[in-house]
Amino acid sequence: MFRSNYQRVFVLAAAALAGVATLSAATTVTYTASGTFGTTVLAGEDMLKLAGEPFTLTISASESLPPTDHGHTWAEYTNLTLNGTVYSNLLPGVPITIMSATATMVQVEGRNQSNQLLALQFPIEVLAYNLTVTAKIALPLGTIPNALINPFSAPVTMAPPDFLTYADTDASTTLSLASGTVSTTTSAARPPHSAATVNAPQFYSADLLSGNSARNAII
Predict the structure, then answer these.
(1) How many Å apart are CA 60 and CA 108, to the nearest integer?
(2) Burial status of residue 169 (CB atoms within 10 A of its CB: 0-12, 13-18, 19 or more)
(3) How far is CA 73 from CA 54, 116, 206, 218, in A?
């Protein structure tokens, strides 16, 4: 009897540990956008003098993270941590570190359209300015299998009409993302993600860059 109970406890403990190991092995996907802002300001006045300067933005999320909100071909994730570095002609050659613990990321699958979309929005303080930053990057079809957290199929080259806007309560400035790449890395090797989708109305390609959608505050 003692041996039987001991074996049962051992089996249950092993199963519990296996469950913990499975949970801890959830893959984290890190998105990195690194490039250079365009030299021509698209809108507003570039008070931070970011035009023509390099930047890097990094944001991470677990593949197991459920969306805060979603539609037929889009998913929104909130309260993500974003880190980055920008350069300003106000302080030539000096890297300026930025961080936000309340970043929002939206991915649009763009099924049956001309492109997919990655959009970011986050509040930051930089050079004593309290700003809201919004970035939109078009992705070729097939970059993501659905709007859930997935690694990209390949790095994506940034170029106009990709853009970033920074704004405060008084004014906003829009710069093109003139060059660079946005790519993903994962915390562990993983099998291909299933092509599961979430259901709700889909967008048209014109909406992906104009922002005329259910998530028009970001996309």
Answers:
(1) 17
(2) exposed
(3) 32, 9, 14, 15
3-state secondary structure of 19: helix
Q: Tokens 């704004």 — which residue?
A: 167
The length of the chain is 219
Phi, psi of 89 (to 5 degrees): -70, -5
Render pLDDT for 34-79 as a digit per residue (tens, 0 to 9). 999 999 999 999 999 999 999 999 999 999 999 999 998 999 999 9
Per-residue pLDDT at 14: 41
124 forms bridges with which residues in the sheet? 131
- 38 vs 11: CA distance, rounded Å: 61
User: At 114, is the secondary structure helix, strand, or coil?
Assistant: coil
For residue 138, the SS3 value is strand
Q: DSSP label at 11?
A: H
Which of 42, 78, 45 minimizes the C-alpha distance to 164?
A: 42
